[in-house]
Amino acid sequence: MDQSQASKDKYGQLVKEVSPNSPILTNCIKAFIIGGLISVLGQIVMNIITSQGVEKDIAGTYTTVILILAGVVLTGFGVYDKLGKFAGAGSIVPVTGFANAVAAPTIEFKKEGLVLGLGAKMFIVAGPVILYGLLSSVLVGVIYYFIK
User: Fold this and answer.
1) What is the full per-residue pLDDT of the chain (148 aa) written as tens digits?
2) What is d(CA 63, CA 90) in angstroms, rounded to the nearest whole number?
3) Using an 8 Å Cβ cutoff, are 76 and 107 in contact?
4) Which of 81, 103, 89 is nearest to 34 (CA)?
5) pTM, rounded to two decimals
6) Is 7 within the bounds of a domain?
7) Less packed terminus of the chain by CB within 10 Å, N or C?
8) Inside any domain, residue 120
């Protein structure tokens, strides 16, 4: 065994000793519960809106807007970050997580000004999602056009 392999083995052992074990089952349960509760909240909001006589499609749009607004407001007050640390992926998957991904960099870089801070950094996380979502939808639309 050469010197570099011995160093790598020693480093690997040190990492195992220092790194805490991740409680995977507990994290999955937390993510499932919090993500489910966010979804249940969305369903409750949608049920309330549809009970007022609003069509289901329009109620879905209103529900999405309300959940995005809630995600942004909770991010602004620092609550959503704490929820994310507790729930992990359970807070990222719903639309509120997307709102958090747009709002958090905006809040972080607001001191750099409206253009270079807020404008440039707003989509630092969500930008690739929007870009590739848009491109894939165009691609599917073109394929659908030629198949039909």
Assistant:
1) 566 666 777 887 887 778 877 888 999 999 999 999 999 999 999 999 999 999 999 999 999 999 999 988 998 898 988 998 898 888 887 788 878 877 777 777 766 776 666 667 777 767 787 888 889 999 999 999 999 8
2) 19
3) yes
4) 89
5) 0.67
6) no
7) C
8) yes
- Residue 18 domain-assigned? no
Say which amino acid occupies 148.
Answer: K
User: Tokens in use for 121?
Assistant: 């950094």
User: What's the CA gap between 133 and 126, in Å, rounded?
Assistant: 11
For tokens 């602004």, what's the residue?
A: 76
The residues, any chain, with a CB within 8 Å of residue 56's CB and separated by 6 or more, are 50
Residues with Cβ within 8 Å of residue 101, at least 6 apart in sequence: 92, 125, 126, 129
Cα dihedral 136/140/146/147 (nearest 10):
150
Domain count, the chain: 1
Range of the domain at 126: 25-147
Q: Would 109 be classed as within a structural domain?
A: yes
Q: Cβ distance 37 to 94 under 8 Å? A: no
